[in-house]
Amino acid sequence: MKEDQRTWIARRTKCGDDADCIGKLYRDRLSTLNGADPAHRFSGVYEVKDIGYFALFPIGNRYLVNIQTADPREGRWECELAGEAESSGDDLEIKIEGSVFQARLQDTKMLVVSNTESVSKAASQFCGLNGTFAFSYHRVRPNL
Prior knowledge:
The protein is α+β, with helices and mostly antiparallel strands and 144 residues long. It has helices at residues 2-14, 19-33, 117-126, and strands at residues 44-48, 52-59, 62-70, 78-88, 91-96, 99-107, 110-112, 136-140.
């Protein structure tokens, strides 16, 4: 992640005082981070209201993943996962500390983690009793 940031900062520095160059770099970077760039279409933050979020940050041809969910009513369980993912078509293969499971980009606005055996196994490792992160997450676009 730091290398990715350093590379972007070096490109920005090369712009000098050229406002058009700097503006284009910022627009391109925002497009990459929020999933508007087709090469990084999974990028961004997705949420399930009052339950949690699923964040994907692009690093080369893969993504850093952070998932946090919690019981919305009584707080009996919470999940916190961090790892990496690789995309193939509309699917992501997510790897977190020996667990591997799938997510699917249903459209540009929704990322679905189905309640499969591999998701249940990961949830038993990273969530409290009966916790889960198997939800349909809706993309949150930053207010710019």
